[in-house]
Amino acid sequence: MTAIRTCHIVDLAIDDIDHEFSEENCLECTRDIKESFMEYQIREIGPETSVVHRVNASLFHAALVRDPDFVLRVLRNLEDDEAEFILNALVDSTSPQFVNDTWTQLAKKEIESTSQMVSVIVSVGGNQKLLRQLAAFKLDLIAKDDDGNSLLHHLVDISEKYPSTALSMYDVIQQVLEIDELKQLIKARNKRQETALDIASRCWLPEMMHAILNTNKVYKFLLGECGTFNHYYYDVTELEATKNEYGITPLFHLSLVPEHRLKRFDEFQLLRKEPFATSIEELFYFGKHITLSWLLSWIAFVILYFTALFHIIVSSDMEVKTTLNIMIILVASLGCISEFMAVPAMWPLFKLIMRNTRAGKQPVSMVFFYKMLQTSFYVAALIAHCLHLVGLRFICSSVALQYIFLLIQLNSIVNGILGVLFFTQLSNKMGHWLIVIEKMLLSMSSFVVLSCFYIVAFTLAFSLVVSTTVACETANNGTVAFNGMINSLYETTVLGLGVTVPKDLYFRSNASSLLVILIFVGSAVFNTLIMVNLMIAIMNHRMTALCDHAESIVLVAQVAIYELVELKTFSLQKLSPCILPATLRKRCIAKSEDGTRSFLYTIEPVEVPE
User: Could you tell me the pLDDT band of residue 99, with boundaries at 50, 70 and 90?
Assistant: First the structure.
């Protein structure tokens, strides 16, 4: 590493900034850079040749976010190759320590964690003018750091908290770089083989997703101007190839957006901007008829299954039962085969959902979960009726097997009903209600935990006060009431929930009857006034928060459904090209003459500058 003498800036007041970046320090910093450049040249001649050169963070790097004039004065004092050397060297940012103002604190945080490049440090500060000026001094805007991240990768990270800063710096990059260099920057992959667009999509950053895909002459091309509207086409060759290879596209990431990102998406209106709006319309057009046939066939099968199950239960004709069982087994087998044929296409999406879930980023729409329930329905129906057909006597020989058999049948019934409810998300008016109910039920977990603590406390208190061995003559048979722990827990829990009125045993047959009355009344008041209102408050809060984004929720759910349909269609088409050939028609996507590139055609209104 080239050693530049580090100028530490510790405990400086804001008033001392002018003194710190004085002309004397400028000359000293220039001299240090020249010495470091000579050391670098000597080392490059020797056996320790390295493509990447590094320097310690110095006063020059501190000035990138504090005093741009100081930076320019230093660069003007350097030769061209010396200026290029200091601008493109990777920075060891263990020093200096900056003063306590807003931009400096931000820069300090970013430099210490990720920023090894001068271009990134300037971008963190948001100084567009300085970035343009440094580009004139041959600052390499397409260079990479040790992790393979380019400047655009870092702009995506910056946009997490400061989207306007990231967008403004990206505008400068588009103005400075040539088209070939800009394309190289956008297509660059880090050591995890991710482009900047991949990271922006994975982190659900709508501003950078839109900015990258709207980069002129890389993704976006002007086809023609027509009055107040312009005609464009977007190069979606890579996205179509990724989709055909069962990869994850930006639209897949959008279908898995978590709830905490909905507000940001609504504010930016990403799903209604190009190319996403037309891509979604194209997706809906592609899967409209297949989704409708899927809906009708599923509803028909569930209705016929419940009807057949009812006849199997009530009918005494064994031939009818056998025939119905065989029919259910055949249809369920076809359903299982269809589902398992789509596993290779669904597997990358399943892994992505599991990774997001483990990171606490559950998708707002649980479409994939309902798809799993439909698969579970086919499997449960197949197993249950195979057992019913060939192993009913064996099942009846064991109580445990009977319970297992009943659970399998119950699972198929519940999954069938939920599978039908799944399609309500296709409705623009009622599609969000199922998701609202899901989130409200999940939010009830805190209420359930509090309720459990309350019930346990009430039960233990009552059990201590009320003797479990008191003999109580009942009106019916004179048996001993409250004579066991299970009965004690049951009776006191029911009382705690206010379901029944206390019996004579509680109020008269106990020595501490007044204490018993106080416990019961306090429990009832606590239950009705606090717990019930808490439950209502939780539900009201969740419903309000979700209904504010109802339109986006419905659109995201529909995108997820149609993405699953498209994946399944592609998987079936790959296995047998003669299956569903008409579904491969595209309305807004065209191929180039040689068939190697795909373009998405859009019509957009002319943007009037403010």
Answer: very low
Q: Are 586 and 578 in contact (CB under 8 A)?
A: no
Q: What is the DSSP string of 36-62?
A: HHHHHHHHHHSS---SS-EEE--HHHH
Rounded CA-CA distance 230/503 in Å is 80
Rounded Cα distance between 331 and 553, Å, is 33
Q: Residue 566, Cβ neighbours under 10 Å: how many? A: 20
Cα separations in angstroms, 357 against 256, 347, 351, 484? 10, 15, 10, 44
End-to-end CA distance of the chain: 49
pLDDT at 528 over 70: no
CB 557 within 8 A of CB 365: yes
Give 17-22 contacts, CB < 8 A, sequence gap 24+.
Answer: 17/66, 17/67, 17/99, 20/59, 21/59, 21/63, 21/66, 21/67, 21/69, 21/70
Average pLDDT over residues 304-321: 78
Q: Is the dihedral of CA 387, 388, 390, 392 positive or negative?
A: positive
Q: Tens of pLDDT along 343-398? A: 887 888 888 888 888 887 888 777 777 778 788 888 888 887 787 777 666 666 66
d(CA 384, CA 405): 7
- Please give the backbone phi and psi of residue 241, each rounded to the nearest 5 degrees, phi first: -65, -40
Q: What is the pLDDT of residues 233-250, one digit of tens each?
A: 888 888 777 777 767 888
In tens, the pLDDT along 283-294 reads: 888 778 888 888
* Confidence (pLDDT) at 6: 37
Give the SS3 label for residue 471: coil
Q: Which residue has the higher pLDDT, 410 or 21?
A: 410
Range list of H helices, 97-150: 102-113, 118-125, 128-136
Which backbone phi and psi does 401 adopt, to 5 degrees? Answer: -65, -35
Burial of 595 (0-12, 13-18, 19+ CB in 10 A): exposed
| Whether the bond into 250 is cis, omega within 30 of 0 | no
Own/partner pairs, 261-265, CB within 8 angstroms, 24+ separation: 261/204, 262/364, 262/549, 262/552, 262/553, 263/549, 264/204, 264/206, 265/204, 265/206, 265/552
Per-residue pLDDT at 1? 47
- Check if the beta carbon of residue 99 is closer than 8 Å to that of residue 9: yes
Nearest to 575 by CA among 333, 345, 247: 345
Burial of 35 (0-12, 13-18, 19+ CB in 10 A): middle
| Sign of the alpha-carbon dihedral angle for 177, 182, 188, 194 | positive
> Among candidates 148, 147, 171, which has minimal Cα distance to 159?
171
Among 564, 204, 548, residue whose Cα is nearest residue 367: 564
- Averaged confidence pLDDT in the chain: 74
In three-state secondary structure terms, 226 is: strand
Phi and psi (nearest 5°) for 601?
-90, 130
Helix (H, G, I), strand (E, B) or coil at 146: coil
